[in-house]
Structure formats: C-alpha cells, structure tokens
C-alpha cells in the first residue's frame, strides 16, 4: 500500500479514499490541459500542536479568477472551500506541514478543442510535504532559452494545468545543464519569473519586482513579501520591467512562492550575484516569512487559518 492509498481526498462533493477517486481516460482536462489549480500550504506548529493553512481565502479567490478565464465556476464560494479544506486536513489527521492542491477541471469525457459547453468538476488532494527546494545554500540559476507564454496565448495570470508545460520546459532545461532553477523572460526579453516562483531584486537599497504585465502569476507570497518589506523593513518595493543583465549587476536576487517559500540566487548564468552570500534583505524576508507562516507574527493582512478548531468545522 502506498502513502497515496491512505489519503482522504475531496472529489465530486464528497470525501473519499484516494483509490476511490477516479477519472476516465477521455477526461477533457487530461486530453487538453483544460483545468486550473492552486497550491496551498499548511504549516504545522509543534508548540501549539496546530496546523495553520496559509492564505487559503486568497488562493480560492485566485482559483475563482482562473475558473472565470476558463469558463468554469467553483462548486462553492471561496469561504466554503476554505472550510472544506480545513475539514480535509482534519480527516487526514495531519500533524506535519501539508501541501494542498485544489483542481477545477473540464471533466466531460469527450474530445474537441474548446472551453464552452463542457461539464466541470472539482477535487482537492492534500498530502504531507515540506519545501521542495533545499534553499539554505542558495541556488545556481540560468536564464532559460524558453520564453514565458503571453497573456494573449495561455494567460499566466491563471493557474492553468496545461500552461505548466511552459515552466516545466524551462525547469528541465535548467536541470539538464546542471542548474537548480530557471529565470524565464517574456517574449520581449524582460524578467518574468522562475518556473514556479516570483522574483525580487535588491539594488542599492531599493527592492524591485517585475510588474504584473510581465506575464507572471500574481503570486500570493509576492504580495505578502511586498507588504513585509514595505511595512517591516521600511524599504520601497518598485514594480517595473527588469532586464536580464540587471540581475547580473544586482546585490541580491530572491524568489518566492508557496512551494519554494523564500529562496535566494547565489549565481545566475555562472555570474555570482552580489558577494555570493545570502544578503541582508533576503535574510530579513526569510525570517519574516518564517514568523508569519509559523504563527509567530500575526498581521491583519495575512491569513493563517487554524485547522484544529471547532470554529472552522464544516458539516460533512
Ligand atoms: N509563478 C508561478 C508560475 C507559480 O506556479 C507560482 C506558484 N504558485 C508562483 C509564481 C508563486 O505564486 P504563489 O506565491 O501564489 O504560490
């Protein structure tokens, strides 16, 4: 029996065992990538024996936006989906960090390229998981030869399952050349993001990040980090276009996202960034993010939702 076999998942409005949640070979989303999803993390706090879901409402609101772009509706409002997510965690009795993957997908078993006039369905899978990159040492990255898909092609603003072939090409190319991660440029050559994280740079005390028109996913961690830098560190964050070579010449580059947390770049295209050590802004952001996600620092603009509290129970 694998670990997956033991999971409880949420599918078609019910909690079931993973092996009982099946989809057919002709499912439209499998044939054409016509689904959208979120990646949410919940953090286990040993001291209070509590599991806290990080920014669940923001994730479900973004899923609703992705759904709109793909002509779908969520089966319930974002609040109710947060409650279902907490219930799913309780049913699995998680006592560790957890990764949560809600997916809304075109479920009709039919062929034909379109988005309209197709049934859709929803599931959530959640499983124990910590960070997927070992980040303490800093990452060696390259600029990918693959360009970011455009908003008018497969909109990166939506987390579309099929769109992830684009960052997957970039990531595998980077790995094949011995790098940890790829920086992906827009078609006109400006910095967009990495395979699954947003980019920040620090140059002469000013923090910058590519603006939302650079064909990136408007990351929830990006928003949290921006607020943290401006409110706690008192530094300005400028959203603007960033050139490739500006990354070479900058003091610090760090990336952020639900999966990776905060990670920093030691080098890019074999050029050392700054002095090749974790910079002071990156360190402060890393510490601040850790405090927020572990419930050590509470802020009104950051949602940390406790799983093991009756207030969030949902009728099953
Ligand atoms: N960009 C891409 C392409 C991603 O897949 C992710 C991860 N969801 C991010 C950025 C970071 O977004 P968030 O902070 O909302 O996880």
Based on secondary structure, the structural category is alpha+beta
The shape is: globular
CATH architecture of the largest domain: Alpha-Beta Barrel
Mean pLDDT, to the nearest integer, reads 94
**How many domains would you count in the coordinates?**
2
Question: Care to describe what's here?
Answer:
The chain has 316 residues and is an alpha+beta fold. The protein has two domains: 4-128, Aminotransferase class 4, branched-chain amino acid transferase, N-terminal domain (D-amino Acid Aminotransferase, Chain A, domain 1); 139-293, D-amino Acid Aminotransferase, Chain A, domain 2 (Alpha-Beta Barrel), CATH 3.20.10.10. 25% of the residues lie in helices and 29% in strands. Residues 310-316 have low confidence and may be disordered. Bound molecules: 4'-deoxy-4'-aminopyridoxal-5'-phosphate (PMP). 4'-deoxy-4'-aminopyridoxal-5'-phosphate (PMP) is lined by residues 39, 167, 193, 196-198, 217, 219-222, 257-259.
Spell out the key features of this protein.
D-amino Acid Aminotransferase, Chain A, domain 2; alpha+beta; binds 4'-deoxy-4'-aminopyridoxal-5'-phosphate; disordered C terminus; 8-stranded antiparallel beta sheet; D-amino Acid Aminotransferase, Chain A, domain 1; 2 domains; globular; 9-stranded mixed beta sheet; 316 residues
